[in-house]
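Section 3.1: Structural characterization of target chains.
Under the original work plan, the team committed to producing a structural model for every single-chain target entering the pipeline before any wet-lab resources were allocated. The record below documents one such target. The sequence was received from the expression subgroup and is listed exactly as submitted; it comprises 271 residues.
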Amino acid sequence: MNTAAIFAAMLLTLVAGLSTGIGGLLSMFHRQSSSRFLSLSLGFSAGVMVYLSFLEILPESIHFLSGGMSETAAEVQGVIVFFMGVAIVALIDRFVPSRDNPHEIPNVINMVEHSGKDIDIDHHLLRTGILSAIAITIHNIPEGLATFTSYLAEPQIGVSIAIAIAIHNIPEGIAVAVPIYFATGRRGKAFLIALLSGLSEMAGAVIGLVLIRFSGTELMVGYVLAATAGIMVYISFDELLPTAERYGEHHLAVYGVLAGMAVMAFSLILL
């Protein structure tokens, strides 16, 4: 694992995380947003992440693990660690109150469309925005781990995951920025907090670096990749797909998922 690869993985993770700032900008300067397009985009992200998790990252994990044990033992341990990754994000959700959980934020499209109208400015809106930022910050840590480790294992896969995560970070940025803007009337403050909420993905990258670099074993790489696959699958089913359906029609979300899978399948074959 060379320094250039680590730097590239860190940079990619940073870019994916800071896409919350794009959401912040959209909430400030765009009065209308396409819920249908957002639904398709989120479904597309879910399709990319699920396809890569099951057909690329988990098999790659088992490949690394099989270097130090039998194929059967590698498959068993890979599956166990996969579900440990699922459990990590599930526990994060469990300890973030549902009212403040970013998955439960009201439809941000409606928030943007009403951003030019008179809204009572109070401390409740400010609290909503701050708590949303805190919750999203916590949720972004495992996403950073996923982006960083997948890039080190296979750059092409890492870039695809980073794009998918960046897309789904955009509405999170809107959800943070809009209530803060309403509460304070300050565009710059709302944008900055939305932008900074994505920086926690770098903490996930650092965790991945520590686990892989200082262990120095293929076994650890295999374990981290398996956990990464579990994290991505959980995020897709618990966050991306429900949000896609909430912003659009059921079939639009499904079409987005299928498109994401198809694009990944053909891109992996061609490249």
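Residues 102-106, 112-122 have pLDDT under 50 and may be disordered.
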